[in-house]
Amino acid sequence: MNERGVLRTRLDALAREIAKFGVVGAMGLLVNVGVSNLLWHTTDLQVVRASLLATFIAILFNYVGFRYWTYRDRDKTGRTRELTLFLLFSAVGAAIENGVLYTATYGFGWNGPVQSNVFKILGIGIATLFRFWSYRSWVFKALPAEDGVGVVAQGRGAAEQVPVERVPVEPAEPVRR
Known about the structure:
Layout: H1 3-42, H2 47-70, H3 79-107, H4 113-139, E1 149-155, E2 158-163
Antiparallel strand pairs: 1-2
Helix pairs in contact: 1-2, 1-4, 2-3, 3-4
């Protein structure tokens, strides 16, 4: 396969990954905003506390979607490590998301129902960029390439394989003391 074909295959794989991430994220958004609004209208919880609770419910929902659909072809060894990193990066994303809402609510006094939803969704949007990068880079790692062939895309039930250029590594010389 020529360089252009390899690039095209990788871009197609990235587009599919972004689309799947977006579908799970959109469903998580509905869970997050739905639970937030339910808590805002039926409890006496403060805006940001209710939002944090909704965020963590959505995080649990999203983990299942990411692990078993978006990143189902990724490395499945070390689930404890994976879940720990997922929760760590999700907590950072929650801080970003709810930091925007906190700033709008308590910094600027924008705490009406519509304003709370707008800043909640804005915070989710900003946090989503961080989450996409961190999940694909650190949490759901791609399987290593073997024998000069790497799995880069899933296409209609079977993984598509393309040649991966191997760079020869010279053995290190022993350190002389």
